[in-house]
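To: structure desk
From: M.T.
Subject: fold request, one chain
Message: Could you run this one when you get a chance? Sequence is below, nothing fancy, just the single chain.
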Amino acid sequence: MGAPLGIIEGYYGKPWSWQARADTVSSLKPHGYDFYIYAPKFDHFLRERWAEHHPEDEFEALKKLSAHCRSLGVRFGVGLSPLNIFRDFNVEERARLSGKLAALDEIGLDDLALLFDDMRGDLPDLAKNQVEISHFVKAHTKATRLIVCPSYYTDDPLLDRIFGQRPAHYLEDFGKALDPKVDVFWTGEEVCSREYSPGHLRRVGDQLRRKPFLWDNYPVNDGPRMSQYLYLRAFTGRPSSIGAHLSAHAVNPALQPVLSRIPSLTLAESYAKGEGYEYGAAFLTAATEILGRELALRVQADLLSLNDVGLDKLGVRKEKLRARYAAFEHPGAQEIVAWLDGAYRIGADEMPTG
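Reply: Done. Structure tokens follow.
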């Protein structure tokens, strides 16, 4: 049984256009993608300046995207990161958070993601304080589904090195105290997990006292290292059997919206075909739908260079690839050219350090 599928736009770096977001929703809906959560890290009005209202033009664009999603039967959500609010959730902060939630309600939300990731977490009573805020948000939003991202959303010790050692029994304490109707994000055994197993997800579900809401960091390619690659290959390591252990499966896409749709389609096929899934064939089927046959075959032939080598290691191949894809007028080819030109590079200063 497959898990409900959706997109969480949760990357660092160059933002998608509003048209690209709408087109992605339209493209993926026929394949079973039924929710879209807008949570890009560049949106300061959801992060550093979270208590402030969006500028009018951005606010209207969000309302338009929400209406587009709902017209297609796709749930629309927003991810709010009230940075470090759990350090002192006082009367003033409650008022600011209440005002922000009221503003977001005007957009038209089905889902609200409350994100405590990328913040210092080695604090006393972290779980207790975050649960208190989560319950406050649940009581003050019109969204019918609340999904919370804990500060430690993976087993990966990378988070402890960057944001401080996680409190003992943090996940168990968080899950025990949190309203069972609230979903919880989880990225797996790593921040960017290579695979998921029913055993792992069952264990995490026991700790959280609910099925995890999977935040799948593939094909996202933000960061100084990952922006060197175009992750185009089909999904692997996600057997359909994991669906029974998830409340939902959200894909964090790449910086290239058109190209992101290729692996996204293969995940839907993986769930649909189960043990009959073949990732190579799934890639070509998805690429042909998104790019057309000629360009899909071209990308298939260049997968090693685009997906595996790394931009700075392409050498003389870079100009050959650029000339090859510049000959296509397709927006997917244009994304490849822009990537080759360095338009999607991300520096270390654009990433969180705690």
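Reply (cont.): The chain has 14 helices and eight strands. Let me know if you need anything else for the meeting.
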